[in-house]
Structures are given as C-alpha cells and as structure tokens.
Amino acid sequence: GAVVSQHPSWVICKSGTSVKIECRSLDFQATTMFWYRQFPKQSLMLMATSNEGSKATYEQGVEKDKFLINHASLTLSTLTVTSAHPEDSSFYICSARETSVKTQYFGPGTRLLVL
Amino acid sequence: AQSVTQPDIHITVSEGASLELRCNYSYGATPYLFWYVQSPGQGLQLLLKYFSGDTLVQGIKGFEAEFKRSQSSFNLRKPSVHWSDAAEYFCAVGVGRNNDMRFGAGTRLTVKP
Fold first, then answer.
1. In this complex, do A43 and B104 lie within 8 Å of one another by their Cβ atoms?
2. Per-residue pLDDT averaged across B95-105, rounded?
3. Chain B residues in contact with chain A using a Cβ-Cβ cutoff of 8 Å
4. Which of A43, A90, A100 is best to mutate for the B interface (most B CBs within 10 A)?
C-alpha cells in the first residue's frame, strides 16, 4: 500500500531557530502534498497545499513567510518553520495524494516543541 | 455552508459490542467520502473510501460504511469492537476538481473491557 514517511518524528528546539520537516512518498509519486497542523484533541487544520515544481498554496491565516514549503521532487516536500516560537509547538502531519486513486495518504506526523 | 459533521465527540462501547460512528456532510454534489483512524501520537490511516457504485463499502480491520444520499450520511460501523479499536476517527470528504480534503471534528472511541 501507499506509504508516506515524515522526518523527524520529534523535534525540540529553542525559540528563534528554524526547523525543517520532511515528507516523503515512498512507493508512489505525488504531484500534490498537503501540510496539516493538529492541536491536542482537535481535528486537522490544512495549512497549505504543496505542488511539485510550483509555489505552495496557503490557507487563509497561514503565514507563508513563517511556514516555508518546498516541493522539489515528486516524492519529497519539506516544511520549514522559520524563527520558531512556543506558539508554533504542535503536531504537524503531511499527506500525499496518489492521483490514480484520488486518495490522500498520511505521514505519521512530527511533534514540534519550541522552548 | 459546506461542512462535515461528526455529531459525537466521544463514544464509549464495551468490547465485543457493535459500533456506529456518524458522519454527515453538506456539499452541493456527492463528494468522495473517507474514514480515517488516528491512534494517539500517530498519523491517519485510511480505513475505507467511497467514490461511486455499491453504497456499502468494506474497509480494513473489519470496518464498513454505508453511503446514504438521501441523508447525506456516511456512517462507519463495526459489528464487534476490539480493545485495539480505541482511537480517534475522522470522516473526510474530497471536494472540487482537485479533491481537496475536508475533515470532520473527529470522534474519540473508548473501548471498555
């Protein structure tokens, strides 16, 4: 089946530093990947849609200069949280859309803690 | 307004009992419909999906869901719940040309011994 990985699974950083999270589709190509944020006991909030070879599309209220997205290949998208602050602490989940089956497959998530 | 509604925030069932998790959607056309499960600290795993055809779909782990157009519903069922089914369940719809995903708020399932 379709597998999506994320790295790292956990990251703790100091306030003001930048953190990069990788999302990879392991056994299929994904022209479109998605980045979500999830707060405790809440649903997923779509942050942005990442399109291979073009700029990401951000949801309303999501700062594109804060959350940099790069989708340089058909199997890799990265999310960089720039100048992280404690309020950026959250669970970040990516997904990759397998176009042939019109289905999103999700990564295991990355828990970010900013001190 | 377009929405996905999971009316039950939290459900508790006894192990071995049957389960039904509700999902209603409000979109102009019949969207693609999905159920995902999330264990604590994990990503989402696809349980099943409906695009067209037979309105009763079978998924993994013994789950099934039935699409009812007249009720705009896509309820998830399992005849006998196992303790390992305790998790958060999300209903989702894919809408638009790009099949963008919209999630319900989720239903947390607790299984009593």
1. yes
2. 82
3. 32, 34, 36, 41-46, 49, 51, 90, 94, 98-101, 103-106, 108
4. A43
Quick: pLDDT tens for A92-110.
999 999 888 888 999 999 9
Considering only CA atoms, which of B45, B32, B46 is closest in space to residue B4?
B32
CB atoms within 10 A of CB B41: 11
The CA distance from A31 to the nearest CA of chain B, in Å, is 12
Band (pLDDT 50/70/90 cuts) for residue B1 is low
Residue with tokens 């009720």: B71
Exposure b/e, A37-47, CB count within 10 A at least 16 = b: bbeeeebbbbb
| Full 3-state SS string of chain B | CCEEECCCCEEEEECCCCEEECCEEECCCCCEEEEEEECCCCCEEEEEEECCCCCEEECHHHCEEEEEHHHCEEEEEECCCCHHHCEEEEEEEEECCCCEEEECCCEEEEEEC
